[in-house]
Predict the structure.
Amino acid sequence: MLSVNYLIDIVKNCPEYFSDHKILAIVLGVLTLILLLINIIGAISFTADLPNKSSKTLYRLIPFFRIITLALGSVVFFTADQLAGNSDYTSKRFYIEFIIATVVVVLFHSAVLKKINSIADENTTNDTAGQIIEGIIIVIAMAIFAFTKLDTKLTDFGPKLFSKKLGTWIMNGLMSLTIGYVLSIIQLIIGFMYGKSLGNTNKQNKR
């Protein structure tokens, strides 16, 4: 799949990129570690009173996948344009793959929203609805890139900011958002498994 190859190529190329931008690499590394610690502490605190060990383990895995997603998204944001010369990564098939993957995540969010709507608090419901809207925006953007030449025009748009044109930053940001959104399916699946495991625990406790 082109979308998978795209991410692999970015990860393979990022050591060379960040060796030329050492300060940026250090800043991203420090921020990633801080976010990882915050997420781990939050997960441990949230699950401290759960009697079921499998529920604790499942939920405590979420921060690691969240950080991996954020880290990859940050790498894509800064390095996506390094692959702009590869025609495979500006092809219709490439964008359609991301459209399909994003639609799958949107449908998963929709299923979650339908299930939690009657039992979740307003903040949780609004957050899930926001994720659905974000997915729809990504699908629209990828569809525009797939069926027009706007992606190549966008990268040449605007003045230079920190060695990249404004349009390049926008394009990188859209690709970073898309990849982060697609990878979030891992967190959703673990969260779903956690909820199912927690539900089984509650049933056992009631017996």
Observations:
- Residues 93 and 137 are 19 Å apart (CA to CA).
- The chain has a mean pLDDT of 77.
